[in-house]
Amino acid sequence: MPRIYQKKMNGAKANRSTKILESTELAKLMSDINTQPDWRTLARRALAYYDGDQLTPAVKDKLQERGQPITLHNLIKPTIDAVLGMEAKTRTALMVLADEPNDEYEELAEAINAEFMDVCRLANLDRARQEAYKQQISAGLGWVEVVRNGDPFGPKYKIIHVHRDEVYWDWMSKEYDLSDARWLMRKRWLDVDEAKVILPGFDEIIDHAVNDWIGFTDTFVADGSEPELESAFNEYSSFTRMQQEWLSRDRQRILLQVVYYRVHKRIQVLETETGRCVEYDKNNLLQATLLGMNKAFLSDRVIQEIREAWFIGPHKIGDRPCKAPYGMFPLVPFWGYRKDSTGEPYGLIAGAIPAQDEVNFRRIKLTFLLQAKRIIMDQDATKMKREQVQDEVERPDGMIILNPDRKNQKSISEVFKVEQDFNIAQQQFAVMQDSMKLIQDTMGVFNAALGKETIGQSGVAIASLVEQSSTTLAEINDNYRFSTEMLGKLILGYLMEDLAGRRNYSITLNKDDKRKRKSIQINVQQEDGSLSNDITQLSAHIALAPIQTTSIYKQQLVERLTAASSQLPPQAQAAVFDLIAEMMDIPNKHKFMERIRNAMGVHKDAEDMTPEEQQAAQDQAQQQQQQQEMAMREVMAKIGKLEADIAVQQANAARIMQEKESARFTDAKQQAETGKLIQEMQAVATENERMQIELSQLNDQLLKNIELQLDSVA
User: What is the rounded distance in angstroms from the CA atom of residue 83 to the CA atom of residue 64?
Assistant: First the structure.
């Protein structure tokens, strides 16, 4: 390896036991590529059919010879566009979720998710997903690359679609995520001046490579040369591939090849009681402490590591560990279908090409039959030349001059006759209609998904046909979702690595909603040197959002909820109207929602309130609590007074009963007094009953006040 690369690009040296990819291995990889099945020709043809390039040059020349217009009926493009439209309509966003149900981790995951969404938006993730899906369903394979952006003035990361012809992979790999692939190659043609800027320090090697190293041997023999140039010359001399594969001398372009290859090595792994594994470092005091306390144990494991080797033509310019996280390649494949026997990828168009050819053939044939005329005439029927007769027959005002000296002097129909096969044209048209239907049947996309033939059909029937189209695309859409989640995992890995090195970094949540906007600080440096909200302790994963986020889907959801709420009672409609309005995409939605809630008296949640509203709500709650306490004290005072009155009445009743017993044997005067006492006792009993009822009412009021206080606290 040239020393220039070791000094300028090689960020980490390889272990002595690590096998490094050299130019000889590159030649072997390129030979392996040549023996792989030729699926790229079919992919190019499929995209050509999508673009309308469906007729061969020979067919076009024949049509021009006939004077027939070059006509074709491209049914593949609208069908593919309909599938792309369904993806755009039902596209879901990626989101970060915490693996552990913990409040602290969930808050961290929420902050990371906000940063993740900004990264995806600035790097145009949706555009890359759209193009990859188009290649997936059309050609059978799409690629998306995620790398850190070297431009300090641009987005942090670049998420770009890569053309399928720029990527090659280990054909022995069977996994859809290429986790079992030994290598992956990315090719990119660069202008010579661009290559010199991107790869500083290799100007001489690039110039010699472009000029076939002419004159280098004479200079080397006479004056000697630098070891780097000598090594590069030896690579050039021993390289067996054709020069046109890596050099375009006329255009002054050179091929940059980056090979990501997987190497295996054995390491010691420290595994804790919680199952977390890290590579063992004997100089790490914390790891030694865990081992000494028997809180962890060591084991020998075989792991995989991805490295990347850079080549310009035959010249190796560097080798370093791959910067992609999680042991992944920086390129994510979006597979369509794969043949069981060979593993060749193919898309929806591959099966529709024969039917499309049939439609074009029948269309051309039908046009020709409607235009062509068969001439039946005697040899001496006219003195005009053959070409003149054909031209006149084609003209609507053509004139044919018969030969007055012809042998056959019978009717003109026996001498000269022009025929057209309209019956055959009808048959050709019927066959063409069947072929047109066959294209959609082959792709599994029905007319309803294309917006055709829906007149007279119910909305349920149309929705059912659209759902059938989605069902027939289940495999290809499952592959798309799998690749999308893998792409999100790759982006998240880059983001977590970069955020781990920041301290006291603030992330703003709910930027679009002033009421819910808040900031969360991660990796907060404490006085003792420790970190709080340390994202390296967060275990998170990528998932697709549970609902679609497109405006079309939101609009349909609003319409469905509006129709459903219209069947509810007026009180229930008022209770859910603000929730329906929340889903609408309208200007100044926050002011609109606030006015609706204020007008309808809808209670706000604490997280939806401004600080001023939260303070006012707290003051109002305290005031209500004080009023309830005063009401309770008043009720308790009344109860105490009633209990005292009841005690007095009971004492009077006891006294009267005692006097009644003593007056049983007195005279008539005493009996009269006793009768009077009985009446008084009855009056006392009536008053006692009244006071008991009043006491019961006060108890009920007390219970109601307590329930209201409990409700306000809840």
Answer: 35
How many Cα atoms are found within 13 Å in the side-chain-facing hemisphere of 266?
3
Whether 545 has a pLDDT exceeding 70, the answer reads no
pLDDT band per the 50, 70, 90 thresholds, residue 552: low
Distance between CA 313 and CA 239 in Å, rounded?
Answer: 9
Q: How far is CA 600 from the centre of its chain?
A: 38
What is the sign, positive or negative, of the torsion defined by CA atoms of 584, 586, 590, 594?
Answer: negative
Pair 439, 452: CB distance under 8 Å: no
CA-nearest of 609, 545, 548, 533 to 106 is 533
Measure the CA–CA gap between 699 and 713, rounded to whole angstroms: 21
699: its two tokens:
């108890």
Q: What is the pLDDT of residues 349-378, one digit of tens each?
A: 998 898 888 888 877 777 776 676 788 888
C-alpha 446/C-alpha 444 separation (Å) is 6
Distance CA 412, CA 417 (A): 8
- Name residues whose C-beta falls within 8 Å of residue 140's C-beta, 6 or more positions apart in sequence: 39, 43, 46, 335, 336, 337, 338, 344, 345, 346, 347, 350
Give, in order, the Cα–Cα distances in Å from 343 to each of 141, 479, 701.
12, 15, 79
* Residue 416 CA: distances (Å) to CA of 393, 398, 420, 515: 11, 14, 14, 90
SS3 329: coil
Output the CA–CA distances (angstroms, integers) from residue 238 to 24, 217, 535, in the order listed: 8, 15, 50
Burial of 640 (0-12, 13-18, 19+ CB in 10 A): exposed
C-beta atoms surrounding 670 within 10 Å: 15
Q: Residues 113-116: contacts with CB within 8 Å, 24+ apart?
A: 114/507, 114/508, 114/509, 114/510, 114/511, 115/495, 115/499, 115/507, 116/488, 116/491, 116/492, 116/495
Q: Which residues contact residue 706 at a Cβ distance below 8 angstroms, ignoring those fewer than 6 apart?
A: 632
Q: In Å, how far from its chain's centre is CA 367?
A: 45
Q: Which two tokens stand for residue 529?
A: 């040197």
Highest mean pLDDT among 148-157, 364-373, 438-447: 148-157
DSSP 19: P
Identify the burial level of 372 via C-beta atoms within 10 angstroms of its C-beta, where 0-12 means exposed, 13-18 middle and 19 or more buried.
middle
Distance CA 254, CA 313 (A): 7
The answer to whether 580 and 587 have CB atoms below 8 angstroms apart is no
Cβ atoms within 10 A of the Cβ of 273, count? 10
What's the rounded Cα separation, in Å, for the pair 176 and 170? 12
Residues in the chain: 714
Q: Which residue has the tokens 């949706």?
A: 126
Residue with the two structure tokens 């017993």: 661
> What single-letter amino acid sits at 557?
L
* Nearest of 353, 357, 333 to residue 343 by alpha carbon: 333
CA 702 to chain centre: 58
CA atoms within 13 A on the CB side of 385: 3
Q: Is 271 helix (H, G, I), strand (E, B) or coil?
A: strand
- For every residue of 49-78, DSSP letters joined together read HHTT--S-HHHHHHHHHHT--------HHH
Instruction: Kindly calculate the radius of gyration of the chain based on its CA atoms and give it in whole angstroms.
Output: 44
Which position has the token pair 């206080």?
709
CA 245 to chain centroid: 36
> Considering only CA atoms, which of 127, 53, 45 is closest in space to residue 346?
45
CB-count exposure of residue 336 (10 Å: 0-12, 13-18, 19+): buried
Please give the distance of CA 23 from its chain centroid, rounded to a whole number.
38
- Residue 655 structure tokens: 């006294």
Residue range 32-63, pLDDT digits in tens: 788 889 999 999 999 999 999 988 888 888 88
